[in-house]
Design goal:
This protein is of the alpha+beta class. Helices cover about 50% and strands about 20% of the residues. The chain contains 7 helices and 8 strands. The protein has a 6-stranded mixed beta sheet, covered by helices on one side. A hairpin with a 2-residue loop joins strand 4 and strand 5.
Length: about 240
């Protein structure tokens, strides 16, 4: 199994740091997924999560509104196997180390006030950690911090990608190990994501217009009642 992409985000979709050696549209798909996770907004703290897609999988953990995510690839991936956690324990060990190194290097209060890509200087640390784990570190599973976490009856929650994407949102995942790829093909596959982002923008614009109209109508209604009430009062006095 190869971990080829990882990121750290605050409040689900505000990316603080990320790294990959690969190219393709998987980063755009990840951003849409993060947006979907934010919309659902359920409490996902202190659990291990996996979202499979073909031979790829998104794995992530969330602690104190900070999301640590990675993407990996494996031939003949069998997500439903009972020993999934033991087979993929290094992925979660990677995420636990990613969290530990990030929180050790930066002040937590500053992180909570951070802006998008404010911690790009941590990108290289993600790079080094990816290289280390992709070389299959030779330590026993019982020596991993995540192993103790698992022994506390924590399980991996395997989610269906269809939970976050509608049936009409076709996803053609593209992942390339180097830059020698057909740009036109990638551009065509990205059209679905661009259309999706445009729809989201239009929906947000419509919501804004509706809010403004509601405020105007409400103000006019209050003004009408005010004039009508005091107008009647003046007529009674006369």
């Amino acid at each position: 199994m190869t971990i080829f992409y990882s990121l750290i985000a605050r409040n689900y979709d505000l990316i603080l740091s990320e790294y990959t050696d690969y190219t393709g549209n998987f980063q755009q798909i990840t951003r849409i997924l993060l947006y979907k996770l934010k919309l659902i907004g359920q409490n996902k703290a202190d659990n291990l999560f996996c979202i499979p897609y073909d031979n790829y999988q998104f794995n992530y953990i969330i602690t104190d509104d900070l999301l640590y995510l990675c993407m990996s690839y494996k031939d003949n991936m069998n997500i439903s196997q009972k020993n999934y956690l033991n087979e993929n324990i290094l992925i979660y060990a990677f995420l636990f180390d990613l969290r530990k190194f990030f929180l050790t290097q930066y002040n937590f209060e500053d992180i909570q006030k951070s802006h998008s890509y404010e911690y790009q200087d941590f990108d290289n640390s993600i790079h080094l950690l990816l290289e280390y784990y992709n070389e299959r570190p030779s330590f026993t599973k019982s020596g991993l911090p995540v192993y103790n976490f698992i022994n506390e009856d924590k399980n991996v929650i395997i989610e269906n990608l269809n939970k976050y994407f509608n049936s009409d949102e076709t996803l053609n995942m593209t992942v390339f190990q180097n830059e020698a790829y057909n740009i036109q093909t990638v551009a065509k596959q990205n059209m679905v994501l661009l259309d999706y982002n445009k729809r989201i923008e239009k929906i947000e614009q419509i919501k804004t217009v509706i809010k403004i109209l509601s405020i105007i109508i409400g103000f006019m209604l209050v003004l009408y009642l005010f004039v009508h009430f005091f107008g009647n009062k003046e007529n009674i006095k006369k």
